[in-house]
Amino acid sequence: MKVLKVALGRNSYGIRIGAEIMERTGLWLKEEGLSGKAAVITDSNVGPLYAARLEQSLKTAGFTVTILEIAAGEAQKTLETAAGLYDKLAAAYLERNSPVIALGGGVVGDLAGFIAATYLRGVPFVQVPTSLLAMVDSSVGGKTGVDHGQLKNIVGAFYQPRMVIADTSVLKTLPREELSNGMGEVIKYAALNKYFFKYLEQNIEKAMVLDEPVMEQIVLLNAGFKAKIVGEDERESGRRAILNYGHTIGHGVEAVTGFKVKHGQAVAIGMIEENKIALRLGMFSRPEAEKIEEMVYHAGLPARLPELSHEDKLKLIEAVKHDKKVVNGKIRFTLLQSIGRAVVTDKVTPGLIGEELFGWSSS
Ligand SMILES: NC(=O)c1ccc[n+]([C@@H]2O[C@H](COP(=O)([O-])OP(=O)(O)OC[C@H]3O[C@@H](n4cnc5c(N)ncnc54)[C@H](O)[C@@H]3O)[C@@H](O)[C@H]2O)c1
Ligand SMILES: [Zn+2]
């Protein structure tokens, strides 16, 4: 097992990473000074697989446990679901010092974190992430929240967990598509860090068959890298912007396909298309772009834009123009200069996007 310290002053905490470590959750929470009641929030896929195991660990350590299961899927990440859960927490007499534990992927983590941040104006929050994406990305950084109407993550709070327990052995039951999806984000992080990229390049095939030491190392490197960036920029003002690599076009792809292309897949396409733009601007090198494409291929992710009608192509460019990264009407793109070195630029115009993505002439 590895322990990664996230240094955030008073809000510092540890991320424990390793195989078969979920069983120790109760003990660790007790060592953290927590006791009494605990609520576990999980979903209808993860609950039946792991809730009993977590409950046993908590009970053995003396906790009284309430398990709250929501239906799986992004559609549940709403204020309505949160309201139903507040009722249940109140009915179970959860108190100020009672931890809320998220057992699941990013949906459960974001929702349970939002509940922990707001219920009784904040109760201890613990993350037991079960998807690759949640282990490397969504459980690190303190962003919690829910969707509202058509807007994703629009209501929320920054709230740090007391502890994160990433048991890599649970990835065995994660659907293959979700593993690839998480790997899309992993490749993005790796592209921003030379050492991580080298490791991933050498081990991606082992990762895709869930080799334990490799998964442990990937989660450690990725969560550590994200934690470092977040530590430098906890409230997202500057440096975190590099994490938008692959996301500006990625979000456009998600929008025009009505989210049929999953986030990790869209990020993979976004990275490849954004690399083309960086090549065109003479910023980036072709051999490095090819290395990223190779990795996307090994992770079982798409490397090309899906077939789009002319109208959808226009819509994609519109979506990119209205991405939340737009400042003073200029589109801010995070592009690679080399693997491990990203810059934020406003040199990318809608005309250039049309040329590079769809071969339109700019005249
Ligand atoms: N807070 C942040 O900083 C941050 C960052 C990135 C993404 N997110 C959010 O994370 C969410 C996406 O997370 P996700 O990809 O984990 O989605 P998810 O939570 O929907 O999980 C994906 C699917 O895998 C299932 N699953 C998870 N772990 C499993 C396991 N071990 N075995 C079997 N099935 C399992 C889930 O039930 C679900 O069906 C989005 O809502 C996104 O907005 C948040
Ligand atoms: Zn992302």
Task: Supply database-style keywords.
single chain; 363 residues; alpha/beta; seven-stranded mixed β-sheet; two-stranded antiparallel sheet; 13 helices; globular; binds nicotinamide-adenine-dinucleotide; binds zinc ion
- Residue ranges: pLDDT <50 for 5 or more in a row? none
Order of helices and strands: EEHEHEHEHEHEEEHHHHHHHEEH
Beta-strand segment tally: 11
Discrete helix count? 13
List bound small molecules.
Answer: nicotinamide-adenine-dinucleotide, zinc ion
Largest sheet data = 7 strands, mixed
Instruction: State the shape.
Output: globular
Structural class: alpha/beta
- Subunit arrangement of the protein: single chain
Rounded mean pLDDT is: 95
> β content, as a range?
15-25%
Rg over CA atoms: 21 Å
Helix content: 40-55%
Give the N-to-C terminal Cα separation: 58 Å
Strand order in the largest sheet? 1-2-9-6-5-3-4
What does it look like?
The protein is built from 13 helices and 11 strands. It has 363 residues and is of the alpha/beta class. The N and C termini lie far apart (58 Å). β3, α2 and β4 form a beta-alpha-beta unit. A 7-stranded mixed β-sheet has the order 1-2-9-6-5-3-4, with helices on both faces. α1 crosses α2, α6 packs parallel to α10 and α9 crosses α12. The mean pLDDT is 95. The structure holds nicotinamide-adenine-dinucleotide and zinc ion (ZN). The site of zinc ion has 4 residues, from α10.
